[in-house]
Amino acid sequence: MKKHYIMVLLLSFWFAATPVLAQEDSPQTGDLEVKLQVRPRAEFRNGAFTLRAPDQDPAFFITNRARVSAYYGTDRLNLGFSGQNYSVYGSTPQIETEGTFMLNEAWAELLASSWAFRIGRQQLTYDGDRILGTLDWHQSGRWHDALLTKYRGEHLKLDVALAWNQNQENQFGIAYDPGTGQPYKAMQMVRLENKFSEKVDLSAIFLNLGFQRFDDNSNPISGMNNFQTVGLNLVYTPRDWMVKLIGYYQFGDDAGGISSDAYFGSLRLDYMPSDSRWSFLAGVDYVSGNEATIVDNPGEGDALLTYDVADQNAFNPLYGTHHIYYGLMDYFFVTPDSYGKLGLFDKYFGVAFKASSKFSLDVAVHHFNGGAKILDSTGDDDGNYLGTEVDLSFKYVIMKDVVMTGGYQQMFADDNMQLLKNKPEAEDTQNVVWLMVNINPTIFKRKMN
């Protein structure tokens, strides 16, 4: 365990030794800005998150985000407040007596030269939302109640986040139930980023999560399970290209107290010629997993997967925005039951066409394998191909502050996907259709001094 902390300290000293020449631009001062957002989205789900069985009907519904945000800044103080209502059309009565309006942002930030200290409810987003992200696709979004310290130099950036969660004001004790609040009891994060040139940017992150311990009867006991993630993120942007290379390693004890030894690797190439309406991307993501075995299910008569979890080799991508990486049908790492122990090996490519300043089209294809082996009942390798997903989407700018997006996605699932999702004899056609309008104007902006 000590060698992991030594590695983090060495990275910290290396970044700290990089010269800092100047500050970033200071935030605009004296501004008061108010924004409104109304974002309805209609979805037809015929196999989202998991496969649809023959005895299940497709779903169709409309959700909406109604959000109001206000931000104020001076040369020493910034404030941010944002409240919202998330709803499904028809889920509340015409005469509603219980309010559902809540705060998704409520923070204050003190500024001192190159430093900033922000406390309160806020979004944490880093490195393309891989393990910490805003989850903006979800109508509710994601936030953390935390203290965030930031340093900004000309080339160097430092972020330190601390969080401590409780369910209520206690008279005694610090036991915590994650079922009714944040998933972790405590959090500490350190992230360093250095821009070596206009083309090369490198960041390193260390994240520790403290989870409440429970006994065999699910009663809280003293102490925490500490779960660590360390990683590097390299971005190289020569001319019309962008190359991203990411690696993470997880160790410590997860929320269930199981020792973890897991890793993640990603390589992505984007080609965006400046004189063309076309752009292209291709990449691979590898999420380590636990070896699985196909066994008969005596109660149901159908086979299922069991996992070797003596050691946890399944990487947990935590609180990132997984919707934008592992297919728009959200089969992996989105819902609690999609955090499969098998891991994932995702090979993908995409093409985008910008027809005009108002209209663009995107096509992406994902080829999914498990991140670990699937063995048959005799112990032989049975192959781990899961399926192929095709994602089609468009974007149309109706007018200033009003944007329409939509898409069609289809999953071509293998038998192994049925085993993974415990959906034997699933329907052949698994697809999703959606249409969303984002109305997000700034209704008030004024200099207050």
Protein model, in words:
This is Alginate export domain-containing protein. It comes from Persicobacter diffluens. This protein is mainly β. It contains two helices and 22 strands. The chain has an 18-stranded antiparallel beta barrel. The protein has a three-stranded mixed β-sheet with strand order 15-14-18, with no helix packed on it.
Report the radius of gyration as a whole number of Å: 23 Å
**Average residue pLDDT:** 91
Tell me the count of domains: 1
- The ordered string of helix (H) and strand (E) elements is HEEEEEEEEEEEEEEEEEEEEHEE
CATH class, please? Mainly Beta
Oligomer: single chain
Q: Major β-sheet, in short?
A: 18 strands, antiparallel, barrel
CATH topology: Porin
The separation of the N and C termini measures 53 Å
Percentage beta strand: over 45%
Shape call: globular
Q: What share of the residues lie within helices?
A: under 10%
Decide which structural class fits the backbone.
mainly beta
Low-confidence stretches: 1-27
CATH architectural group: Beta Barrel
Count of separate DSSP helical elements:
2
- Number of distinct beta strands: 22
Keywords: Signal
Protein name: Alginate export domain-containing protein
Organism: Persicobacter diffluens
Summarize the structure in short.
This protein is 5% helix and 52% strand. With 449 residues, it is mainly beta.
Main attributes?
single chain, 22 strands, Alginate export domain-containing protein, signal, 18-stranded antiparallel barrel, Porin, mainly beta, about 450 residues, 2 helices, disordered N terminus
